[in-house]
Amino acid sequence: MANSPSSPSPVIRDVIADRVSRRGLLKGGLASGALIAGGSFVGSLFAGETHAAAALSTLGFPELKRVYDKTHAAAEGYETTIVARWGDALATGLPDFDGNKVAADEQEKRFGYNCDYIAFMPLPKGSVNSDHGLLCVNNEYISPNVMFPGMTEDDAGKTMTREQVDLGMAAMGHSVVEIVLKDGKWATVEDSPLNRRITANTEMTVSGPAAGHALMKTSADATGTKVLGTSYNCGGGVTPWGTVLTCEEGVSDIFGGDPKKAPIADILDRYAFDGSDFYGRARFHDRFNLDKEPNEANRFDWVVEIDPYDPTSKPVKRTALGRMSHEASTVVVNKDGRVAVYMGDDDYFEYMYRFVSNKAYDPANPASGKDLLDDGVLSVARFDADGTMTWLPLVHGQGKLTTENGFADQAEVLLKTRLAADALGATPMDRPEDIETSPVTGRVYAVMTKNKKRDQSKVNPANTRPENLWGHIVELIPPGGRGAEADHTAEKYEWDLFVLCGNPKDAAVGATFHADTSEDGWFVCPDNITFDPAGRLWVGTDGANDFDLPDGVYGIDTEGPARGLPKLLFTCPQGAEASGPCFTPDGTTLFLSVQHPAEDAETLDKAATLWPDFKDGQPPRPAVVAIRRKDGKPVGA
């Protein structure tokens, strides 16, 4: 089985390599077997969901013509503002940013590097204010080849200096910055007491079943309850009680040493640790050396809860949500008050998960959510050919999750989430990325960004294409009814393939967009998604550059006659992906992370763009962009 312990997932740098390198991805063209396996899965599996012949899209903007050059572009009638970029000051008294001179300790007070997931948290807390709030942004990783002059991606781990390594640690993690809308333009509040960086050096608490477990203890923390830092923060979510969830997405390649000699070699193998030390941390920090601190690895790949409204609060790693390359942690309050959290494990042939709290959340008492995510049931998804999906509980003592099979207690089930999911026979997916829920229909949409490693023998009902270079979106249909009546705690759902991505004109691809999709409207490699208040789906892509296309943002209806009809709103500059789309409550601003501009360059001097500042001698800077209609009306209307 491709996802068995003997055949581990790739290290995270392999996933990143899919984003930054075109070398070999399309070598030799598409295999002749790249047709859909099982034609019955083309289009909808359910009656009443067929595409109409004529498009009546609810998206009213004139579609953008694809632009792939040094800068970004937006559809006619829209304007963009750079809200926050790498190195922007989050405190007063800092010198003007110089990308060639920034120090590690100074970076702790500046906006982080490769921005990803975005949460807009209104101010004051508890309001739905759409012109004042906190921008909470993940800073996933660094791109040494366009961050440091003369450095390549391959030699970074061996050649980065101590100062560069520490700068990288300080540039990753999470940024919180106060922003305000004035005269239609968003700007940061540099001296806000709420501004904050959360980095690889920030002390955090461990909670839930794995807290205090022997496998979580190190020489620096004999209690197994205190962790220094977070890294590879990719997806995320927002809780109804006003906190942000940031997801650690695979930390395997920031550790050095020999994982095969470690006492936890089986766990390290399943989580793809190979001692690569991609950013040089183990050369200067013993905690990232598996020969010296093997258990340190177990203290990452969790979901971290942050209270952005309290800059003195300590982030908490919620172990009840499982350990994996978390891509999403989307929170839904079920009709019975219990909380469901949807998550994807972003690696080849990995799984989709759902956590359901045992206790209900009380909206009248936000404090009731404080430790709600420590007590509940984590499940993994199995998709069946009859159009049903079953959530399989990862509970110690049930089925194969026993001491005899290597799971001593519930803490070990969660520490070995991937191994537990293997044992239950979950469905291996094409790199599960973001998972979001429609505020109108209650249906759940899960993004499979791509999987070039799947061959014909490994196709399954929910992943129908071998050598899937284009990705697809799966639609989950909870029972119980529409909207708030949907039961997100049910054991069984129905499911559909919403769209298979790729060029509709290439029959070998087998794309299933609406028949009226334009030459500029189809997309590949969906990554992050969100919904606007009207219930329209917005898709950010990551990987279009491999097809000599820009990554960008597309709006798409999920129901009605224009179901499955995308329209292009925004394109990124060269080498960048579009990630973390997020709306203000009133839908008038769409925030977007433009991540790793020019990263496909071998070295900084060969960068195709110096976006967004275009200053000679200065590196490109990942940034958050605000997209608004010039007339101030909701985006997409």
From TrEMBL:
It holds the Pfam family PhoX. It comes from the Bacteria. This is Secreted PhoX family phosphatase. It comes from Mesorhizobium robiniae.
